[in-house]
UniProtKB/TrEMBL annotation, chains A, B:
Keywords: Metal-binding, Oxidoreductase, Zinc. Belongs to the zinc-containing alcohol dehydrogenase family. PROSITE patterns: ADH_ZINC. This is Zinc-dependent alcohol dehydrogenase family protein. Its cofactor is Zn(2+). Residues 10-337 form the Enoyl reductase (ER) domain. It comes from the Bacteria. The keyword Zinc applies. It comes from Microbacterium psychrotolerans.
Length: 339, 339
């Protein structure tokens, strides 16, 4: 099969690799309908994370082509969406809704889903079948549910976005934008998107942002306080993962408020005393997308949300290298790869 | 009046100071019935925090002797308990239950309550009157409500201790021990006190601990995992404030679990990536004791809890220096000073 491999930072190639096969009786094999490039794929692309001939990708939707003999809830031919972490969905951690930290959690990125086929471990616990074969125009939104939507949604839930709340969103990538969408769906009263890119501001407004703040760092924090009677936001979504973005999130949150942080931390160090006196609630990590998939699939199926709009560039998988370049140069917010 | 002053690290003296007077119309003056020494007073005593001829103390119960003309809910003669932070109790932060981070929050430690009298700012928002004059044997417990009980209680609430939960408590000082009591009152199923001091283990058991873990650091974490099916505790109370205790708390908590941290942070730095992948909820800071005072006073008044048991040494205020020595040398858990 054809698959995307990052040979080294900045060096993306599409190679022939062996088709995956069922290894464990709980595995399923899927034929990808679409896949995509994640903001987190840019860390190794820029040389900030190690990479060496690494198969890429962890987001996926597709059709089941084979199942192991212990798979009970899925059939060959089902159209499925899965999380970027495989999970058994039966352990105490999963049952509490933290499937991405399942005691058997397996990162799909280690298998690579920017490919024609993928092996999905713990298929019963990882995959959710759609109500039927989706119309083609629903595929991008279903793909988004696999990570960026699920992650933005988790961030909004972790930040306790809801009625009467003012929510600030740090980060205007696909996750931040879908955090805006999630906050709106969860009933937030006011949603402040922090962005200095006109096209992303427009999509943020379309997804439900009521205010835009262009300032960053201390100036951004000051602006959030100004917009919230001096108190800070009730809820802040952090969707970047840098020291600056984390401190911006913590300082923009009022005492007793909630931060949902989902940007994978890079060289972040939190000062204990500042955190102590901030009085905020801090919760985040790799999103337990599986928890939200049934609800998100239904919202998409019913055409009540359209998260697929974050894909502003679609390329055949053969042109993956151009997709990485476009995202890295911020010419694209999120790139969908057709398989 | 007589008052405790820390001249320099290790140098505690009882001096004559001017009696406090009403400064703002929202002030009250109280005659202390009892006061005490806090674990946090030991940081400057040991030279870990700056100190220079500093009046000491922030815990207090007593009788109102004078009120400013804007004080509406209290009368001269009322017996009152107050938080270690004065608060207006009307701003949005207070109304959300975070009075210690009130926009007008004022640390009582800056005024010093290890003294015969104290001025209490925002008296209406800070003080809660007891149902009547307390019996003498209730005074230690009411004094505990002012900080250590309120702080342990907040930690248990922040850690979401409750029915069906396993709660681990890091720190066997007065706050940790009262965190055990709070977890029990909140209905926790299992409470693991981490302590290697026999006398404190005994009090922890009396307050409701079901298990004792003597190991610390990685060994302590391993023991907590062993006791919880490999998952970690649902809820962890952190009541120390060091790097080791914070990491012990984070690592002992299962993914999706909750940490309530109330030890004032000293040289703590949290690695963003470890925190990210821990998947825990982190919440803490200076306890909003005022939120809990009405409930705690009633529990004490009805003799349903006896937090005053944490005081294992009572001295007249003139012997404050010996009280500090005893706590610093861990000969006493918590010292009550009679005034």
């Amino acid at each position: 099969m054809r698959a995307v491999v990052m040979f080294a930072p900045g060096d993306i190639r599409v190679e022939e690799r062996e088709d995956p096969a069922v290894v464990e009786p709980t595995d399923a094999i899927i034929r990808l309908a679409a896949t995509c490039i994640c903001g987190s794929d840019l860390w190794p692309y820029r040389g900030d994370d190690d990479v060496d001939h690494t198969p890429m990708g962890h987001e996926y939707v597709g059709v089941v082509t084979e199942i192991g003999h212990d798979v009970k809830t899925l059939q060959v031919g089902d159209f499925v969406v899965g999380s970027f972490f495989a999970s058994d969905n039966t352990c105490e951690i999963c049952q509490a809704g933290y499937q991405s930290r399942c005691i058997h959690a397996y990162p799909m990125g280690a298998l690579g889903t920017q490919a024609e086929y993928a092996r999905v471990p713990f298929a019963d616990g990882t995959l959710v079948a759609t109500p039927g074969m989706p119309d083609a125009d629903l595929v991008p939104s279903l793909l988004a549910a696999s990570d960026v939507l699920g992650t933005g949604w988790f961030a909004a839930v972790a930040a306790e976005a809801g009625p009467g709340k003012t929510v600030a969103v740090v980060g205007d990538g696909a996750v931040g934008l879908l955090g805006v969408l999630a906050a709106r769906q969860l009933g937030a009263e006011r949603i402040i998107a922090m962005s200095r890119h006109v096209d992303r501001q427009a999509l943020a407004r379309e997804f439900g942002a009521t205010d835009i703040v262009e300032e960053r760092g201390d100036a951004g924090v000051a602006r959030i306080k100004e917009l919230t009677g001096g108190y800070g936001a009730h809820s802040v979504i952090e969707a970047v993962g840098t020291q600056e973005s984390m401190m911006q999130a913590i300082r923009a949150t009022r005492a007793g408020g909630h931060i949902g942080y989902v940007g994978v931390s890079h060289d972040v160090s939190l000062d204990g005393l500042e955190l102590f006196f901030s009085g905020v609630h801090l919760h985040g990590g790799p999103a337990p997308v599986r928890r939200f998939l049934p609800e998100l699939i239904q919202l998409i199926w019913d055409r009540r949300i359209d998260p697929g709009k974050v894909f502003d560039l679609t390329l055949p998988i053969e042109d993956a290298a151009e997709g990485y370049r476009a995202m890295n140069e911020r010419r694209a917010t999120k790139v969908l790869l057709t398989v």
